[in-house]
Specification:
Structural class: alpha/beta
Strand content: 15-25%
Number of helices: 12
Largest sheet: 8 strands, mixed
Order of helices and strands: EHEEHEEEEHEEEEEEEEHEEEHHHHHHHH
Number of domains: 3
Radius of gyration: 22 Å
CATH architecture of the largest domain: 3-Layer(bba) Sandwich
Oligomer: single chain
Helix content: 25-40%
Number of strands: 18
Length: 452
Amino acid sequence: MKYDVIVVGAGTAGCLAAKTAAEAGLKVCLIERKSQREIGEKVCGDALGEHHLKVLGLSPPQHGELEKRIEGVKIYSPDLETVFTIKHEDFSGYLLNRWLFGQWLLKLALDEGATLYDHTQCLEPIIEKSYVVGVLAKKVKTNEKVRYEGKVVVDASGFLAVVRRKLPKEMMVENEISKEDVEACYREIRQLKREVEEKNYCEIYLNQKVTPGGYTWLFYKGDAKVNAGLGVCMRDNFPNPKKQFYEHVLTQPVFESSLLLDGGAWYDPTRRPLDNMVGNGVVITGDAACLVNPIHGGGIGPSMLSGYLAGKTIAEALEHNDVSQNGLWPYNVKYMEDYGIKQAGLDVFRLLLITCKNEDLNYGMKYRLLTEEDVLKAGLGQEFSLNITEKAKRVFRGIRRISFLNKLRITVNLMNKVKAHYKGYPKTPKDFEKWRLKTEVLFAEARSKLLE
């Protein structure tokens, strides 16, 4: 079976890639392991910033996909004494009915003419003369092997990255990512005994003893339902997230007599984007390309953006009859300019948070070493400088936390260095290796200074 574009995975990135490519008049197929009815069912935080829909020119869906409007984020210090309230259009949006939202995205793709092959598992890319020219797949129900041939393959298969992991080294795409760059997450949807009043903010709780290198979240969805979960960095001897959830979250009074509606675990690649996301005849999108916010782990928005950019770039490449790495390279450039710079800067901030002690977080938030405005600027990918008062310096000297103060300074400087470096992302593959080596040096410096 021959197509212009083969999209592996019908998640947020895959559906947007298929929709955008089909809209441009290309012959597109979506290959998905799940049944059509199961598409959209995913263990997820279910939050989406409204600005992501605006950027993609999508009108908000109107049939139950958006369960609740949220105004922003509240971040709680480990001792619960300090709360940062982050309110900005980039942090407001919706809590989703994840299944209905996934079905809506799928319909957008199918309505543009994409063909869906569900119950079909991608096994590996087909590579001929150093080009990806299709995929070998298996029909789940019959085990029958099928070849799908295409001019370009999009890997939108999520964290498993079934295409990316089997690409040849000469394509300069990372096959494996470090365990330390991954969060192990566990989440449940719970029906509470009664509605919790005025919960229009996503709640995030920092506590290195409960969630080392991660956080707990409580997202209240209305109708007395809550999406609750936690993530831990897969570093050293990390704790089991489900065990932590049952010991530290479900024991809170709000969950007394609550009912489990849905639960499950998943992995979140919380780091900077892959340095390169294209090869001859192949584009990597969404979680497969590590396109997740390194701080809050949100991946729906960046995934949708990457799918849209992939579809646009592929249409342009096919128009010029050039699906080489060079022809597909503008996808890298556009993503890095748009979201990649912010993601890379936040990856440095994540390294600081991984090793912060609870005492540091408590004092840092209480004495406003970091302010709500700093957190907002960091989240928006804007530059910021620490405005530390003499009073705060004296307080920190008195409690012997001056080393944390210094780490904070180093972090801000490194974030700004990394973002300046990403602004110079190479316009062609020719200059990539030099840029990549500089990236490695910068992140090695960040790890050595912040992960002591």
